[in-house]
Amino acid sequence: MSEELCKQIDEIEKLVVFDSESKNYKFNDKILNSYCPIKDNNGKGECDSDDLKLGSAFMALLENFNSNDGENPKDDKLYQYAILWLSYKIKQNPKIEFIRTTIDDILKQNKWYRELGITVDDKKSTIRFHYIYMNNLYNFLKGICETITNCNDPSKASECMESAIKCNSLYRSCLIAFPWKEICNPYCNVLTNLKNDYDKIREKYSDKNLPELKLTEGLSECNVECSKKASPPPNGLPALPVIPTSINNGNKLPYIAVPLVLIPIILGISYKYLTHGRRKKLNAKKKVKAIINLCDEKKA
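-> structure tokens emitted (300 positions)
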């Protein structure tokens, strides 16, 4: 990952702002209209909806990534990193419901994006996760960029080490929870690209002795975790984050104790209603028998 790529993320963040008063996105530079639909005869683009603005900003960021000398335009990670930024920006707007199809619904409105020819079967289309996973990955991306910026400045030796240590924590956050099997491998692919970029920083600044990304007890590399995952049930909802067993052991007792406490309560209620029902039937039989006896006495 180059310093230029990190600067481009910072720059697009300044140019696309969510206005808390109007509850809409706004461009601070008209150059972002370049990827908006053409509305007049002058050939100028205009985005008249939040979805169109987000799509235009995404295309501008992706094109900037592809123009970097230090990056390979054919590398999928550039698309992945642009998607991470887009997910972060989408979440700023409470009016937009962030579900698995949200990103595609926004991007497919953009003419230039459609011209990329990214099909459903393309592996790029699998970079669609729950926001929790997207957010963890984006935070890791920003942490790496912060490390690059600090380590490039000789006067920020301590900040360089601090941000590198922070990357360790951000990396572990990405490993604590995994999506289900079908998207676990794409998730792992993004995480691996980020980890590789961090390792390149360590190699570049070997004289600074930046810490290696290490796993704590109970955590495994993402490819190992993905091999353990099962497929979701048909028409099932996206799985919520699952805490590793070693981390969650302390919470098992309450979950076991709850049903044990409920069993006698349920049995007690059942016994009460069963007993009450039997008494009602017995009383009804006694009344019928009394009526029959009374009729027999009158006949006599």
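The chain is about 60% helix and 5% strand.
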